């Protein structure tokens, strides 16, 4: 599709092969995090390491001035802003970027809605105007659990409630995410996965959704995109994902 769009727009088309680096930096990270009982977001790391890392380096070496992507996000000065289409905003996936990268990036669709972008693609007779949306992880062909089961050996164990009562069996802790409701395989629900005990290999669930909520959290690896950290303590709005 990219090649066809380039042909219509009379642009040179290059293919860069980053498959080895992608496997090492993205897929291996993805598997390692799941193995540690976490739920990673590989797109965040891919944006930093591949799209605005390796690709940007290569583009600058080819004497390109900017790299443009189709993220629904905007840049204003040294700030990264949400995309105009609130339902498609992707600023969250770019939180690891820095000023060195931002000064070489364009986000041409950030000021449009998805619908407007499709209409523009149709107007310019681009074959992508009807392309189905993809919201899955690009390297996972079927389901995440099917992908994980090919690479991670998991040990089944007990599912217990917050009082320790055994309710059923899990297939391996890597296959579950905190807050998960579907796919727990328990009768008499709904139940939510509230905690994973890696030492005892237990999946702890609750019937009370309020048990998922915490009163505080610890934010690690904070990245101030502007390059300057604000004066703390600071009152801010945060979105938990």
Main sheet specs: 4 strands, mixed
What is the oligomer described by this structure? single chain
Radius of gyration: 21 Å
What is the number of helical segments per DSSP (H or I, 4+ residues)?
A: 6
- Largest sheet strand order: 6-5-8-7
- Counting helices, strands and paired strands, the structural category is alpha/beta
| Helix proportion | 25-40%
Large-scale geometry: globular
Summarize model confidence as the mean pLDDT.
Answer: 92
Distance between the termini: 31 Å
The beta-strand count equals 8
Order of helices and strands: HHHEEEHEHHEEEE
Task: Walk me through this protein's architecture.
The strands form three sheets. The protein has a four-stranded mixed β-sheet, with no helix packed on it. A two-stranded parallel ribbon has the order 1-4. It has a two-stranded antiparallel sheet with strand order 2-3. It is 27% helix and 14% strand. Helix 2 runs antiparallel to helix 3. The chain is of the alpha/beta class. The protein contains six helices and eight strands. The mean pLDDT is 92. A hairpin with a 4-residue loop joins strand 7 and strand 8.
């Amino acid at each position: 599709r990219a090649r066809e769009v380039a042909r219509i727009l009379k642009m040179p088309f290059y293919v860069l092969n980053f498959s080895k680096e992608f496997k090492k930096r993205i897929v291996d990270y993805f598997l390692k995090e799941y193995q540690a009982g976490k739920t990673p977001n590989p797109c965040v790391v891919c944006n930093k390491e591949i799209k605005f890392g390796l690709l940007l380096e290569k583009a600058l070496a080819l004497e390109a001035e900017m790299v443009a992507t189709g993220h629904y996000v905007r840049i204003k000065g040294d700030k990264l802003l949400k995309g105009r289409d609130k339902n498609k905003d992707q600023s969250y996936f770019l939180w690891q970027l820095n000023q060195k990268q931002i000064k070489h990036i364009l986000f041409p669709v950030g000021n449009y809605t998805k619908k407007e972008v499709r209409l523009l693609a149709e107007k310019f007779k681009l074959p992508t105007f009807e392309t189905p949306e993809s919201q899955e992880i690009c390297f996972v062909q079927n389901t995440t659990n099917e992908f994980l089961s090919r690479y991670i050996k998991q040990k089944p164990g007990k599912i217990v409630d917050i009082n320790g009562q055994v309710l059923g069996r899990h297939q391996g802790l890597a296959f579950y995410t905190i807050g998960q409701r579907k796919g727990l395989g328990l009768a008499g629900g709904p139940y939510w996965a509230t905690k994973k005990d890696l030492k005892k290999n237990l999946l702890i669930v609750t019937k009370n959704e309020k048990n998922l909520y915490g009163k505080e959290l610890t934010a690690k690896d904070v990245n101030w995109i502007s390059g300057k950290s604000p004066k703390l303590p600071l009152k801010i709005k945060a979105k938990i994902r």
